[in-house]
Amino acid sequence: MPTFTLPTLPDLSPATPVLWRGRVWTGVEDAPLNDGAVLTRAGRIEAVGPATQLAALEDAVTVQTDGTILPGLIDLHVHARPRYLPWFVAAGVTTVRDACNSLETVAALLNPAGLAPRVLPSGPLLDGPDAFFRQFGPGAVHEPGDGQEYSAGALIVRTPAQAERAVAFLADQGVTHLKLYEALAPDVYAAATRAAARLDLPVMTDLGMLTTRGRAAQVDARQALALGVRSIEHASGFALAATRAGFDPAGELSAALLDELAALTVQAGTALVPTLSVFEPLATDTPPDQRDLPLAGQGGPVRESLDAQWHAVHAGTRPIRSLAQADARLAAQLAVRVARLGGRVGAGTDTPAGAFTLPGGGLHAELERLVQAGLTPAQALRAATGTAADILGRADLGRVQPGAVADLLVVAGDPTTDVRATRDVRLVVQGGRPLTPAALRATLEA
């Protein structure tokens, strides 16, 4: 069979056996295989190993990448909309965990009209009567059983019995995980986690940060960890836990307290998704430099709408710059401690709710921020690949291993030594289907 070198590439279907040659990083190990190869066939990875061992496959088209082949990236915290779904794939993000959307929007996300990542939805979040989502208008908040549950971004639950019914309702709608929010009462929160556990439904939770509900939430991180949540988003609830322990989280916290909270997180088996990209843009009056991120220069109505939202958020949060600095510091300090203890740190962006968090491209910025916090490049990469897949409970994602879905990202350079190398996207393979940067740009512009 013929051999091609990128960017030259024939029209290949997912069914075509292809041997992708180059530096291979599996999403699991620290170091890459420098002269490696990945065989994909029928949308799955069939073999991985040294190129010299796999080169004799006579039925495969060979593609020499001259770059690093790694798993398609996973963004663990997004708020997706159909209109910018292609942006994720164009940036090499092939799977997203949606962190809150109405069931009506979820239906559209799961049935996209064109290019889109794999979407794992939570549906509407569960919150208490004093829900933050009320500021988005009466249609954003409903109660289970009021006949308008499908349009709600948040479902209000006031009692443990209501929480159990709401969890059962969402499970019946096919959500892959449950999101619990800031204003839930402790007994209602506990009932929701118990109901989710009975249904084998993982729980992600946002317990509030200093920049949001802060210390006015009812459930702190210690309580959530004791109830077995799968992941804590934004390092939320830890500021409240510090306050209840007699510390001021707006200042410098003691190393002993941070060590204790990180150890509790690891012992509970809970993942931390710190979303550093949410806090850092709010911590300064200067918007972040995004010029070298994938799709940074993409224009059009979608980008204009996002820019208007982000600049409004950034300007409106000027009075809480110091709180954003404290949230960013706490999230980074916890993330590096959890990683050093062998716990799970996941990469999420909160795009586009966080200011200047590009759909798709923002995940590359998050990887660099994780490294700046103290994670190694391999740990940061795993936060968006192998570790992210573990958080999702999906052994078939986030890995370049036999049996996994053939979602691959080819980049120039070696991101295990310089994590910024992920930004130079040379090819995206989605379910075995290769997508060149030129084809991806054409899709976005169309």
TrEMBL record:
Residues 68-432 form the Amidohydrolase-related domain. This is Amidohydrolase-related domain-containing protein. The lineage of its organism: Bacteria, Thermotogati, Deinococcota, Deinococci, Deinococcales. Signal peptide: none annotated. It comes from the Bacteria. GO terms for molecular function: hydrolase activity, acting on carbon-nitrogen (but not peptide) bonds. Gene3D superfamilies: Amidohydrolase, Urease, subunit C, domain 1. InterPro entries: Amidohydro-rel, Metal-dep_hydrolase_composite, Metal_Hydrolase, Metallo-dep_Hydrolase.
